[in-house]
């Protein structure tokens, strides 16, 4: 029976980012569903202060709908999608970037709903809580300081992370491009940047949300390495793979590699679609 790909986006993103990949999958004969986690997609907040001309003072204090959204909310929403998709046959859960945290927690809770789990340069915390990896040597090459310069407002007061992706600051834009789409054109970069939403929730999970051998560990799993990723460096991706293999040595990752930055695989989706098509044949 034909599987359904369930696609989970990363931070500040939404289901719209998967449209080119879904088109390519569809043309290869595959069924897919792109998820908007709570507070994302048409549930996101775009204030007048975020429009041009921007009012940065107002933007720093305006409320956002994603305030109070937790990882548990994301997981509950994703499980609801997985339950519906599972009625139609096998399910392949695909996550990108921070979406891997939600996918991992959902797999811990309901492994019965997932026939294969796929991480594309995505977080799958095993030895540490997800946020703790940022202090590890494998993340030393990620330019967190430059990206943080685009943050707006006080996260503790707003109850969310807010980033001004519509900044005109050339230094910040250059840092964004280097981190996310260094192998893309300026036009591709600005187009993708305008699909990002300004707000993201604060809950990155706890030790209870790390991959668990008894549940997550039962699911066949694939890790798709992005060889030119500066946002989630290859060294960190490889560490996550090693940790997962150590946790479940009898069920190691099937590892694939794409020559891509953090976002290029979504801009140019044909290679990724072919990889996913190969995985569909395994379930």
From TrEMBL:
InterPro entries on file: AB_hydrolase_1, AB_hydrolase_fold, Sec-Metab_Biosynth_Hydrolase
Show the GO MF annotations: catalytic activity
Ranges of residues in domain AB hydrolase-1: 5-273
Q: Where are the transmembrane segments?
A: none
Q: Which Pfam families match?
A: Abhydrolase_6
Quote the PANTHER family the UniProt record gives.
AB HYDROLASE-1 DOMAIN-CONTAINING PROTEIN-RELATED, ESTERASE_LIPASE_THIOESTERASE DOMAIN-CONTAINING PROTEIN
Q: What name appears for this protein in its UniProt entry? A: Esterase
């Amino acid at each position: 029976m034909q599987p359904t790909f369930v696609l989970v986006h990363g931070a500040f993103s939404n289901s719209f980012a998967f449209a080119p990949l879904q088109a390519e999958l569809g043309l290869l004969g595959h069924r897919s569903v792109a998820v908007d986690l709570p507070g994302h997609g048409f549930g996101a907040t775009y204030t007048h202060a975020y429009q041009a001309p921007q009012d940065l003072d107002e933007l720093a204090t305006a409320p956002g709908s994603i305030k109070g959204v937790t990882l548990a909310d994301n997981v509950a929403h994703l499980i609801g999608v997985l339950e519906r998709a599972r009625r139609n046959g096998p399910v392949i859960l695909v996550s990108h970037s921070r979406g891997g945290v939600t996918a991992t927690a959902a797999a811990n809770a309901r492994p019965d709903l997932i026939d294969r789990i796929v991480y594309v340069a995505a977080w799958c915390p095993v030895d540490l809580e997800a946020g703790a990896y940022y202090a590890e040597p494998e993340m030393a090459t990620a330019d967190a300081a430059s990206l943080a310069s685009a943050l707006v407002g006080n996260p503790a007061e707003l109850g969310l992370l807010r980033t001004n992706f519509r900044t005109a600051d050339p230094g910040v834009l250059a840092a964004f491009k280097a981190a996310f789409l260094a192998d893309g054109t300026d036009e591709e970069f600005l187009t993708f940047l305008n699909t990002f939403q300004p707000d993201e929730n604060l809950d990155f999970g706890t030790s209870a949300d790390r991959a668990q051998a008894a549940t997550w560990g039962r699911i066949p799993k694939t890790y798709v390495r992005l060889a030119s990723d500066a946002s989630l460096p290859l060294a960190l991706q490889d560490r996550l793979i090693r940790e997962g293999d150590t946790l479940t040595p009898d069920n190691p990752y099937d590892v694939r590699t794409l020559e891509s930055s953090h976002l290029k695989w979504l801009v140019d989706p044909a290679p990724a679609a072919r990889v996913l098509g190969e995985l569909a044949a395994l379930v």
